[in-house]
Design a protein that fits this description.
about 20% strand; Aminopeptidase; 4 helices; four-stranded mixed beta sheet; about 140 residues; alpha+beta; about 30% helix
Length: about 140
């Protein structure tokens, strides 16, 4: 994935129930994310249409998946699994073996997907966020 795919990925996000587009998903923020994590995020095309994406980054110790999305009409074909595997393999190649993903509690479809594919829901930690932006949707 490159910043040239931004508009198509943003449209994919907007079309997907359970995905929230926030200020942190701006083109500038996405360009910064991709630049900081080169070669770790991927898209899938059908002809020239972006039908799936997986954004991936790391903090030097742990990997993080974000916006693993497949258009509903393309689901159940293993596309998400292939994208996730590419991300995990790239992380592994740079020495990062543990990866996290945050999923909204009420996104039942996504929560079921991750459990079905061997990801473990953590009950031993709480995620806290602090927002210094005046935009509550940052």
């Amino acid at each position: 994935m490159t910043i040239e795919h931004y508009d198509a990925v943003l449209e994919l996000m907007r079309q997907t129930p359970g995905v929230t587009v926030r200020a942190a998903d701006s083109k500038q923020a996405t360009a910064r994310y991709l630049g900081r994590n080169p070669g770790l995020s991927f898209i899938t095309l059908d002809q020239h249409e972006v039908i799936a994406c997986a954004m991936c980054g790391h903090d030097g110790r742990r990997g993080y998946l974000q916006h693993v999305i497949v258009l509903p009409s393309y689901r159940k074909r293993g596309i998400a699994s292939q994208l996730v595997e590419r991300c995990l393999s790239k992380l592994e190649s740079i020495g990062i073996f543990k990866t996290h993903i945050d999923v909204f509690v009420d996104n039942d479809l996504a929560n079921q997907y991750w459990v079905k594919h061997g990801w473990v829901k953590r009950n031993d930690i709480n995620r806290y966020s602090f927002n210094r932006s005046p935009d509550v949707n940052a």
